[in-house]
Amino acid sequence: MDPSQPNTHAPSASAGKACANCKVRDQCIPRGLSPQQVLRFEALAGTPRKVTRGMALYRGGEAFDSLFAIRGGSFKTFMTAAGAREQVTGFHLPGETIGLDGIAHHRHTGGAVALEDAQVCALPFAGLSEMEQEAGALHLHLHLHLH
Length: 147
Known about the structure:
- The protein is an alpha+beta fold.
- Helices cover 27% and strands 28% of the residues.
């Protein structure tokens, strides 16, 4: 897929089995959640999304609505400087969360591109924020990932 084309994949509402079989589950799901909160978190994550090598997961200027937990593969994050020069801001592997750049202004300031065929779980930020209000373990987990 052409990285200049928008990513139109929407997260699915089903999960459970996907999280149970995930190799990075322990890095993604916060410790200290009740069994009911774990089920809610897994439902929030939905079905893993495939991202083909070279495909943009998100681009600078796009609306922010989700964080992305990398389930497999790797990503490059970058900013586009004046004159359309790309400045790499990071390389990310399974177990890491990307998309944090969009939180402050509700738009992504940079982009993320798959360096190889990959999988991510989209975590809708509105749902995470709602869950965070009731689950202290999720609040701590997000705080550690954001700072």
